[in-house]
Amino acid sequence: MTISGSGAKWLIGVAVVSLCVNLFLVGSMAGRWIDGPRHGGPDGPRRGIEALIAGVPEDLRPMIKQKFDAAKPQFQAQRDKIRAARDKVATAAKAEPFDPAAFDDAFHEFQQAMEGMGGIAHQTIREILPQVPAEQRKQLVDNWSKRWGPKGDGPDGPPPPDDQP
Do the Cβ atoms of 63 and 130 come closer than 8 Å? Predict the structure, then answer.
């Protein structure tokens, strides 16, 4: 059986697309097999203290974990504030008629709650760093910079573009 004309071109196109898809899938599987899973482990991305201590030297992990565990009630209370503020934003956004002032107030409350979470993290890290020897502190900062730094290597992708011309 011979296929000619437009049928042959169509069949060749389908075969090329199929080959590309198969090569992509094989490459993805090989990459995962060679390099391992990304963004954490088999249970998904690391979050919270696990993400923070992922690149920390083994001997520092217990002290850092202890400091963050001690601040856990503050973090939880702030998470509750964030959830409540997020709910207010959603309620204000859905309101009919829409009230821009109510939305702005709710969103401002949400921003304040997020800043509060950052403040707790800042204070906890500030308590940790003086207890870390200088060389390990440098390594710690380098590891965190690689994970969350401006190179776009972190889990959140590249940073937003600069507003400068």
Answer: no
Classified as helix, coil or strand, 53 is: coil
- The whole model's pTM is what? 0.57
Q: Where do runs of H (alpha helix) occur along the chain?
A: 6-35, 48-52, 61-70, 72-94, 100-128, 134-148
Q: How far apart are CA 74 and CA 121, in angstroms?
A: 10
Give the max Cα distance, the chain: 79
- 107-126 average pLDDT score: 91
CA distance 47 to 79: 14
Tokens of 31: 């990459």
Residue-wise pLDDT for 20-65, tens only, equals 565 566 666 555 555 455 555 544 455 666 776 776 778 888 888 8
Instruction: Enumerate long-range contacts of 106-113, CB under 8 Å, 24 or more apart.
Output: 109/85, 110/82, 110/85, 110/86, 112/85, 113/78, 113/81, 113/82, 113/84, 113/85
User: Per the structure block, which two tokens stand in for 56?
Assistant: 């920390």
* Percent of the chain predicted with pLDDT > 70: 57
